[in-house]
Amino acid sequence: MSELINGNDISRMIREEIRIETLAFREKTGVTPGLAVVLVGADPASQIYVRRKGKACEEVGFLSREFRLSGDAKEQELLEIIRQLNGDQAINGILVQLPLPPQIRSQAIIEAIDPQKDVDGFHPVNVGRLVAGNPCHVACTPKGIIELLDRTGIAIEGKEAVIVGRSNIVGKPLAMLLLARHATITVCHTRTRNLPETTRRADILVAAAGSPEMIQGEMVKEGAVVIDVGMNRLGDGRLVGDVAFAEVAPRASHITPVPGGVGPMTIAMLLQNTLNAARR
Ligand code: GUN
Q1: 274 lines ligand 1 (CB under 6 A)
Q2: pTM, two decimal places
Q3: Does domain 30-116 have CATH number 3.40.50.10860?
Q4: Counting atoms of ligand 1 from 1, which one is nearest the CA of 141?
């Protein structure tokens, strides 16, 4: 049986480290790190995430500001809020919760955020710096995955890493981070021809496709490290990952559960990015 990677415990440890660092930073500079979170509409999952982010900020001693717009808000209204936050000295980090309603162009919003305050790491300046291997804000979920591997003592260098999913939020930036750590990377997606053959090569397998329990036992090499980024709500109300946990866990050396794996790390990394932004 495999070892469970406990994202709740690791996230709690990091948030406690950030709380202590924030105290010292405030003492030295008089600056309180500030994060603004913007939510458009009333998507239930997004509302939960935004509430958690605000609570996590308060626990580490950050200033937390929340902005809520109705689901029919115009792109111009959101751009105006971002313009104000870009110029607000008390705010070091800006996060616009995605997805946005269809009348708002997500890319226009992302590009309006000051790259120094882009704690999501989605702005083209940060994406470009990540690809070039220069210091930047790195997207929270992929950054959290690297942190989980490091803090579990899993070596990355020289490993075969296979990522299922090529999103801008997870798959693509994770490929760059693993590459920078000297893994050999394969990124799979819906048009990949022989998915099981490819996933079976993985020493480190990351499932980030948004497809419930798509990674089955026979797709995983004996002894692989399996990271599940999926969060899928089934018709019967159950929350499952992209990995069929019961059949994959016995083959894996390490595996993340859902919930309590990658999810809690995302918020810890958001706090870390916000503290870093305040330090610059
Ligand atoms: N929606 C799902 N994940 C994320 C994230 O990491 N950042 C933002 N802004 N929205 C998201």
Answers
A1: no
A2: 0.97
A3: yes
A4: 6
